Amino acid sequence: MLKFSQFLITLPLLALPLATLASKPALAETVGFERALELLAKSVVVDKKCNVLTVSERDELSNYVAKAEVAAAERTTVAVTRSALSAGQSQGRAETCGQEASQEVKATLTAAREAINSAEQDDGSASEPARAVATPAPRGGLSVYGRIIETYYLERRCAFLSRRKMNSFYKAVVRSHRAAISEFGKSAVSKIMKSAEARSNYQRCNGVGEARVKASFAEVASRW
Length: 224
Fold this sequence. Notes:
Elements: H1 4-15, H2 18-22, H3 25-30, H4 33-50, H5 55-72, H6 78-94, H7 99-126, H8 140-158, H9 163-184, H10 186-201, H11 207-223
Helix pairs in contact: 1-7, 4-5, 4-6, 4-7, 5-7, 5-8, 8-9, 8-10, 8-11, 9-10
């Protein structure tokens, strides 16, 4: 099992921009992106099987998985990402419920929370100071990207789609993410991702949420 201290180093790699990662090559040698994704995916499966976390904690963990998946798109291929997630899920299905499994799930959630929050704070401190005026709502392609990523976060939490459609959705999200970064830059995309995550957190896993996810999937399926 990956040590808690190592995981604290791994998760920022999935949250930090590439420029920051390039300045800290030693971090990349500690634990790879794939192992971090495996741990997150494994914890989701173990939690569902063993009922370890509270509802709010379960939603939080799902959000971290979605954020890690999208961040990984900047650093590796879709095939590598899906392979790591699949490996983690297999490990989770093979895990036996018990104290050790529960402790690992809780440690993974805590490490992910602290690592990603720390990484986002570091990233924010290096950005331009926030202005007092309100930022206009995004338009055009950036708005479309925001809508796609918002419903993707919701899907990762609620699991409305089949595995085949989920994989297709993720591939579309990756293409949209890369296109948005190319056109608008990482800073603008990062802000949209945070706003999309916040909006997604207010939505429930009900019929309305399912309709939104399926409509978004149909949209991206027709685009890509």
